[in-house]
Amino acid sequence: MITNPECAAGAFRSPDVKLKGFKIHEITGPAYPALFYGRRDFYKIVLATGHFKICYGDMTFDIDDTFLFFGNPHIAYSNEHLSPEQQGYACVFTEVFIGSRDRTDSLLNAPIFRFEGTPIVPLNKEQAIFVSALFQRMQAVYSGDYDQKAEMLRSCIDLIIHEALRIQPQNGLILKNAATRITSLFMELLEQQFPIETTSDPLRLRTARDFAEQLSVHENYLNRSVKEVTGKPISVHISGRIAAEAKALLQHTNWSVSDIAYSLGFEYPSYFNNYFKRTAGLAPNAYRKTKMEV
């Protein structure tokens, strides 16, 4: 699911992240133990060289190369180190650290951070040298006493994101008009509901009407805008995201099928079984069994 030389997990939970909203760490040396599958409280960018099995949402990546990884706090991920050594850097930062609304919008809508995007960007030698220099610059600035260090760190983050998008262009939402704006808000609201972390807090927004009421717009206008911008009606986006979360829960939790059904807002497990089989081609238990055999 997601790649993560998430450098020392403990180091990233230190007070620095909470107080300053940013931390950078070199991850060269022996590989850390596999990290649990779950959501974090911060964004993460990792530059790493090594062999990793990364789980991100319902996707699994097997990477044995130099790459960038982009972690979104709203999307569950984990990583398993398959090589004894790792090399690279990792930085974490909060949404508050990014600052202004314009900058935050840009960050939240960067395709590499979104569920429908690809969070891993392979790098060639020249690209790795360039990105490594940016991480080294961030390390120096972070350790220094420059008055405007936060702004310099934000600029480095922006450069890394832009370099990744240049290397691996992805189809993202560009906020040009009201339709794209409301579509972006819908996509953000949809994504904020995931991952489902407990059976006691089930999915609440499941229909176009639910989202329209939340966004204070007419249901027809919202659906028309989303279809105009993305080419797909709201129902397709919602269904696809619920199906992806169902796959992730079947693969990464020991919850019963009934618990998963209720957590995703299905009134009866039989409804969920029919829904999942229609979208995935397999019954939930059969899908779980195939993943356990991999």
Automatic annotation (TrEMBL):
Any Pfam family matching the protein: HTH_18
UniProt GO MF annotations = DNA-binding transcription factor activity; sequence-specific DNA binding
| Sorted UniProt keywords | DNA-binding, Transcription, Transcription regulation
Q: Which InterPro entries match?
A: Homeodomain-like_sf, HTH_AraC, Tscrpt_reg_AraC-type_HTH
Location of the HTH araC/xylS-type domain: 180-290
Please name the SUPFAM superfamilies in this protein's record.
Homeodomain-like
The highest taxon in the source lineage is Bacteria
Question: What protein does this entry describe?
Answer: AraC family transcriptional regulator
